[in-house]
Amino acid sequence: MAKAQKPTRTHTEREARPHKRPRRPLLSDNAWSEAIRDRTARVGIIGMGYVGLPLMRTFCGAGFNCLGFDIDETKVEKLNAGRSYIKHIPSTLIKRVVEEGRFRASADPKSLRDCDAIVICVPTPLTKMREPDMSYVENTAHLIADHLQRGQLIVLESTTYPGTTRELVKPILESGGLRAGSDFFLAFSPEREDPGRTDHTTETIPKVVGGNDPRSLKFAAALYGAAVRKVVPVSSCEIAEAAKILENVYRCVNIALINELKMLFDRMGIDVWEVVKAASTKPFGFQPFYPGPGLGGHCIPIDPFYLTWKARQYGMSTRFIELAGEINASMPEYVVNRLTTALNERRKSIKGSKILVLGLAYKKDVDDIRESPSIELIETLKKRGASVDYNDPFVPRTPRQREHDLRMTSKKLTAARVRSYDCVLIATDHTSYDYAWIVRHAHVVIDTRNAAAAVRTGRGKIVKA
Ligand SMILES: NC(=O)c1ccc[n+]([C@@H]2O[C@H](COP(=O)([O-])OP(=O)(O)OC[C@H]3O[C@@H](n4cnc5c(N)ncnc54)[C@H](O)[C@@H]3O)[C@@H](O)[C@H]2O)c1
Known about the structure:
By secondary structure, the protein is an alpha/beta fold. It has helices at residues 11-15, 29-37, 52-61, 73-80, 91-99, 135-147, 164-174, 214-225, 237-267, 272-279, 304-313, 319-329, 331-345, 373-383, 415-419, 435-441; strands at 42-46, 65-69, 103-106, 117-120, 153-156, 185-188, 207-211, 231-234, 354-358, 387-391, 423-426, 445-447, 462-464.
């Protein structure tokens, strides 16, 4: 089962073969194998965001017909018109699969009835009280339950605490009378997407799969095995859920460690980036993590707190995670303090100063600003009386977010404009920036990413933070 079922034809050949098949319940092992082998199994993906859209690309690429279900009708319209809204997913790809009849988007839940497999990729954020907000997963489970068909395979991919699939999703799906493991099938398979990466794609990243029962595992592993290079079956949904949380906790804790060491080494006059570079030469037992202005994105700042919350039900407090969260959350404040000191040394106060923040996205070369530390940096600088602008080639204007509405637009970078700011703060190290040019024209540069490491002229203006 662990072996991927390699498509025998190329993706292009498969995509040129649109097909439709009236849905019959895939209840037997043979029926599932055939539907996967012949690519007649229809895959529905719920939530066409940063995870759902690349997943559609992977399944369509492997020759399956896909339905993209989203409650956001604007996204549905754009997709059906062949337009992408995510930077690294080209519109040409969407247009092609729509034109070939391989993919269609819908906001009508009835469309889910025609799918043999339904994969859930909806958000799992935190509430204002920093507890798991399971409303998206719950609403989706209810929506599926209302249309659930015999023989369907339901897979949850959203990152969540161990136990979600069995304790939360399964009872909702079974509320109509069908039973998981016999009438329909249920599995958890975490998404490991890293937007902006070019060395790995959804297809090449191994897919961990845990089933509610042996047949659910078998069907889910077979489905993914036809679309990705390697499937890693595990013994339960809980193992798969916990594996994903472990991956994210591991990053969160290690980033916090290096952020704390950055603050210490800075006091000691030691460059943390050079230290990490030196330590990375050890061929075993060390993995480099890099400091930054704080955590961002949909995963690392959020997911570990799903586990923290669950741990309380077991009478445990996850001290490592809490401490890591505390350190990482304090980084924007640390950066602003470094910036304040740098201005002070140049006889300037932060109040009334003009600051340009470079990079709004939470990491380089992406357009995703969710949980981005740049937002907090801007808000803190403004609170301290600075006048703040930003530039980000991928974020022309700040979108309205659940908790922020900055209403700012990206300022064009010209030499005169860069010179007009008291300070330039590098928050995101986009590859397209010419750091030597920035340092040449800026009065002082606060560099939170070691982005200007290679700049030779004007190093006296650079303050690492
Ligand atoms: N973004 C990442 O890099 C990443 C990586 C790994 C795992 N994940 C996890 O994957 C999940 C999805 O994340 P994302 O980044 O794709 O989120 P996203 O916000 O980009 O996309 C989610 C989509 O779900 C839609 N949606 C919300 N409720 C819905 C409902 N009831 N029915 C149908 N559609 C609904 C939204 O309109 C949106 O289009 C989360 O659990 C996240 O933690 C994300």
